[in-house]
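My current task is to audit a protein record that another person submitted. I need someone to confirm that the token line plausibly describes how this chain folds. Take the sequence as given and treat only the tokens as open to question. This is what I was given:
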Amino acid sequence: MRRSADVDALQHVLCAALGSRVPVCSIAELGQGAEAFGALDPAALESPTLLGGGAPYLPTTPAPSPQALDALVRSAEALDVPQILVPNVRRSDDTRALRAAGFVPVAADTECVLRLTGEVDELLRTRVGADQLRDLRRRHHAVSREASWERIQLSELDESPWARDAFVELHQRHVERHGGHHNPYNAEALDALAHGVLADRTEMLVSRRQNSVVQAGLITKSHSGRGLYYLTQAIDHDDPVARRNLYVASLYQLYLHARRSGLDWVHLGRGAADRKRRLGADLFVPLDHWLRAPGLAPSGDEEEEQALSDFAAPPVTTVPIPGPARFRHRPRFDLIDLSSNTNPFLGAESRYPELDTAELARTYLATLSKLPGSEGVGALSADHLLFTSGAVDGVMLLLAALTSPCESVCVTPPTFELYAHFARVLRLPVVEVPLSGDDLTGLDTERILAADPRVTLLCDPNNPLGTRLDPTQVKDLVARSRGLVVIDEAYVEFSENPSYAELIAQHDNLIVLRTLSKAWGLASARCGIALAQPGLIDALRRVQVPFGFTNASQHAVRDRLTNSRRVRAGIRRIRTERDRMAAALADHPAVDRVFPSEANFLLVRLHKHERVMDQLRGAGILVADTGHLVPATCRISIGDRRANNTLLDVLSTAL
């Protein structure tokens, strides 16, 4: 309901509820929506107020244009109404005209949406986890055994007077239950809606036990025809069925209905994000009420645009985030998109991927913060995170966004070879500062600082070694370096030692790269993560190709993060098998040395390197030949027990 015709229709319903020809009431009469105004002078809560929107019926109110605001101000003056309220405006809307007209924002609830990207049960398992899905299904099943579900077209409501009367009575009891007096869904309002322009798009959702109505609500199809707005619901809390959490059960029923109808989303209304998240919502849009009242001074808290990092390369500072990615925080679910030049007749696959991944970022950070060694990650926000097409893509992005010609890149061999490869592709000088010590875990910090590189790339746990760098030296380098320090933690989930992500909030020159290809088992989804301060993330976003993170990949990532029990179990099995293989290989006559490992692989020095490698290839076993990095070595990934035992057997024949 983002178009003016819908706003006008719902304002007509509001006027019917108020018994007036214009939408004027006190803020206190808005019921639960008035809670956001608790800090105002009590007189302001009772003062006559002109509403510039259909509240409390609208899911959100579009930010008015300057012309619409001028008309609203003139109307208030003509009516001699001292206050004007434009309720429930998305914070992502352009609100400059409201500020210019003297309106002040008051933080409101969050708008919550569930996007239907697959079958309902699979979708909910992905969003809320298998345990919560079972609870939703159990509640729905319990209610469905005792009550029926019915949908009544509102344009045909006159043929079902029992439903009309029950709807009005339940909503009146709902208002009284919450200490209110004004019922926005009284008989007059319902009749106005049933005989208005929205009647053909609106249905009453009713649940009955025998002849008793225990729940009645309204759902309205969007003007695009792609989704449902859940406008209201009232429940008979005295009925035994209500004790089975009828609200949750009715939402599950609504999801099933929307999916069978081929719809793309269900708008769950306004409310607490945490609660709606447990019901499957995956899009959350902050809202503000905008009030113009005598004596109400502008707050002066207009959000400032995030400052770009000083590490951004000069060309990057002069360009915006490319294309539609600039508008990733502006919800598009209820818009008719005629801007993308795609084929509209070939289904959902013809639409570009979702660009707003803030909720997925929140899920990742919340999941990560529960893992050992990542306790400090909870302090990070979605603004600290960028999804990339694998961690390697993150390396390419940061070199392109944060370096200029002739600025050097430092690598610490033996390490992941693509760091130097990408630097040379971008014509950046490469400085090599080799690792030291028997296990190659020592950083020559002073030599790196003396080289004064623009970017230092560290791999920790290191590939191909599997070892962790000396943490004291790493932290010293981050603290003292004038350039950027990038720590690639692709294998950190297999380590007993903590991540460096908790240091991000303290250092504006630190970037931590993560991946879901390794421990999380999503190599085909191509999902990497860059963690850094928001100014650095903004710089990376300016060189990133839009739409690289597909909907299929987003779905797979959300599923794996939400249902991570198997991942944690797999990590434990890999660690156990790694330790077993390390012991077996250390005693093997074909092996000279097994390097210590905190990854999911082992670096092994062989007695007869070439002969062993030939033997393994001949047996159909592929391991990484790392002899050019560390002489006479190969890198062996930890497989399942059968594969690992097969490798041990083949090694014995190579002597």
In short: The mean pLDDT is 92. The chain has 21 helices and 21 strands. The two ends are 75 Å apart (CA to CA).
